[in-house]
């Protein structure tokens, strides 16, 4: 299977990109002067708590922060042994969070898959809403259907997400008894997965999905409409009509297929935009996603925590682009890739 | 005989505007070919689309009706419901379009797109459709139908794509084929072959055809009946022979006069005197490297031009003729210094008879600026070569400003004077390009090119985007300013008939090589090379007694290794360009 070979090749380049990203991430979080521990030491010295200073100094050597930057990086990724042997990202050790005084893995823990869950739900929402609305708006362009969808779309684009979140909470709770805040009923927190817990999560997902996905869906819908309208004027559409095709079937088979490329290519952009875009929403909605954690970590220069979160977002992006690249190759025979027979 | 299709008093309009097709009537008998002839804006395309009601949403049929005679009796196409219309489209009346590449969906296999007609109209199974498609592919001349079935459109050449379109139109065995400029986008030799194919298919199946075209040469080769349209009205209609032999309407006559032709009885020409050369190309070659898809495969070398030696005497016109991909534009770009030739090639330019020749590709910055003043270019598409945001005056005075010549008022005066010289009026200086027609725009670009008083003008297909009558005017203009201002032209074209008129010498190119070179008269009188012969034979002439000689076309238009032995060449070995008689060179082994 040629396509499988391409997918493998694409996976290889993804790992390579991830490596480059890790270096960039590490450099960027080290750019501001000082780090979490030196800030703390300075503060402890100022208040004269020498015992704390000793502990902080101990942590510095413990996490190799006293070594040159390139060594810190290599230890962090896991290419060279640190004070406790090989123990980096590759080995599955994500480091220590100084701010929360806990291993990063433990702090991040559940929020990781909750983030993925919320964002995948939002992406699905975007596609499920944008696809039919965009197609209808294009097929019935310059009619009330088109104008209505455009109006609703622009409304969705223009409303700040957190505001939308608050409004939805209020009315959702008042009229539909949709629970406020969190990603599940507090009863289930820490409990093992069960049918009841799943149900609770699904109900809690409704509002965040809608809030995070709305603007994306509105934009996507307008892009699809514009692309489709361009395609509808092309000669191959005339050819299809001259064959005697029904307009609806023609629309789906030819112009929609053509307008689909940018639609698919957007998957990669959508994921990171949603993760970073949903920080504010997560704060407002009290979602235990990774967004708020990233915010705190960056503010306090919590080296390993912020590094890990940034890497995680990068990974999501890369997986998104990989999926869209492979899908594009499957969808469009004109796209050439390594090793394709011509 | 009952006509297969009758168009009666048809008027079509867009929105609230005046009708663009007014009271058009004609009839098509079973099996015959009717040509709808006219220039752009004549309403010929709208008329043929109105038959199948494939019109933009804002268009309406205002008066008249279209009757199609079917086995179930007459059907009024202009009023039947959409569902019934869909049954007719593609089944009884099929249609092919001008640009085959854009008329096929790029994402679906050819076999699927062609076979779809059968799924739609005959409810054929996958297997039945496949068999029928393969049969039709064989009929329209695909050497390997199985392979074509699996191909995507971008894997085929333009001629092959149009064959696929024809197969799609033919597969349901329609009674009527509407062909809207089916060969306009194709090279002339390909056009001849596609026209021949359509004719053969018609003879085999007894299908009638409405052929929409602007080319009287195509009409003379194909039509039984002619309808000449102008500004939405029928000017003249009738059987092809009387209309073509002695047109009754002045407009038809005008079209005939404008159509460029290759002389019917050519005389031998005399060799060009080559003492004062303004431009000389010495063994110019250009190789493009196509990076290989994998590091283990060698890169692919594309020879866009190989060993081109050309001489342009002062005040003369040298034409380079060839089909798309022959390398003619590459040579022109190298001549202008826009691209360097491969090492070993040289382009020499001599601004005045007294001055020294300078090498275009190894000159100083100042010399380059001077050269750019001396050599100007006129482009193919007058719509995209003028900035829509610049007034005529700005567009024209800009070159003078760049070179810092003259005061503002001098520049403006010069622009006004040149506008007059190209047949426009000085009060058009403040207009924007969109206020001009295609022909007027091409006059503008010529005037702009003349602003710097160049001595050399490179014309890249300056008339191929224009209607015939406009093309004629532009050629006349180019001739007169050449003689008035003592200009020299390097003229790039795919059209031998245009070249026949304006050129003093013609170089015919194929696959980057000049295969034959001679003054046009000599070329037409005594062409030696099979490819030149094919080009001449393929040129449709509006003379009903000179049909296209398909045999000659087939002999010369194929791959170089199908040529007679003395002309063959491949990637590495080739015969030299040999002088057979004074001023007549042919690439052959003697």
- The name of the CATH superfamily of the largest domain in chain B reads P-loop containing nucleotide triphosphate hydrolases
User: Reading side by side through the largest sheet of chain A, how are the strands ordered?
Assistant: 1-2
What's the Cα radius of gyration of chain B?
Answer: 26 Å
Helix content of chain A: over 70%
Q: Numbering strands along the chain, what is their spatial order in the largest sheet of chain B?
A: 16-17-18-13-19-20-22-21
* Arithmetic mean of pLDDT of chain B: 90
Distinctive features:
heterodimer, A: 342 residues, mainly alpha, 15 helices, 2 strands, 74% helix, disordered C terminus, B: 590 residues, alpha/beta, Rossmann fold, 3 domains, six-stranded mixed sheet, 22 strands, 24% strand
In short:
Chain A is mostly helical.
Detailed description of the structure:
The complex is a heterodimer of chains A (342) and B (590). In chain A, a hairpin with a 4-residue loop joins strand 1 (96-97) and strand 2 (102-103). Helices cover 74% and strands 1% of the residues of chain A. The longest helix of chain A has 38 residues, at 195-232. Chain A has a domain at 110-226 and 258-300. With 342 residues, chain A is an all-alpha fold. Chain A has 15 helices and 2 strands. In chain A, strands 1-2 form a two-stranded antiparallel ribbon. Chain A is globular, with a radius of gyration of 25 Å. In chain A, helix 5 runs antiparallel to helix 6 (144-158). Chain B is of the alpha/beta class and 590 residues long. Chain B folds into 3 domains: 1-92 and 176-258, 3-Layer(aba) Sandwich (Rossmann fold), CATH 3.40.50.300; 102-173, no CATH class; 277-526 and 559-587, Rossmann fold (3-Layer(aba) Sandwich). Chain B has 21 helices and 22 strands. In chain B, the strands form 4 sheets. Chain B has an 8-stranded mixed sheet, with helices on both faces. A 6-stranded mixed sheet of chain B has the order 6-7-8-3-9-10, with helices on both faces. In chain B, helix 4 (110-122) crosses helix 5, helix 8 (188-205) packs across helix 21 and helix 14 (392-403) crosses helix 15 (408-421). The longest helix of chain B is centred in the first third of the chain and has 18 residues, at 188-205. Chain B starts with a strand and ends with a strand. The model of chain B has no long low-confidence stretch (mean pLDDT 90). At the A-B interface, helix 9 of A face helix 2 and helix 4 of B.
